[in-house]
Amino acid sequence: MPLWSTPHDDGDHVYECRRCDRRVHTEHAPQECEGCGGAMRAVHAANAE
């Protein structure tokens, strides 16, 4: 397998609210947090330390 080849992205993402830190596991980026209405940002669970 070539080094530049990456696994197929199956749309498995985690998003975190900037305001209340609520995490959502979804295929599509949520526009706002369901809990507090804060802005969501993508987080990479696999790379989290």
| Average residue pLDDT | 77
Order of helices and strands: EEE
Given as residue ranges, the uncertain stretches (5+ residues, pLDDT < 50) are none
Report strand %: 25-35%
Distance between the termini: 27 Å
Tally of DSSP helical segments: 0
- The overall strand count is 3
Number of domains: 1
**Strand order within the widest sheet?**
2-1-3
Shape designation: globular
Cα gyration radius (Å): 13 Å
Helix proportion of residues, in percent? under 10%
Instruction: Find the structural class using helix and strand composition.
Output: mainly beta
The largest sheet is: 3 strands, antiparallel
Written account of the structure:
This protein has 49 residues and is mainly beta. It has one domain (13-47). It contains no helices and three strands. The chain has strands spanning 13-17, 23-26, 40-43. It has a three-stranded antiparallel beta sheet with strand order 2-1-3, with no helix packed on it. Strand 1 (13-17) and strand 2 form a beta hairpin. It is globular and about 25 Å long. The model has no long low-confidence stretch (mean pLDDT 77). This is DUF7129 domain-containing protein. InterPro entries: DUF7129. Residues 9-42 form the DUF7129 domain.
How do you describe this structure in short?
The chain contains no helices and three strands.
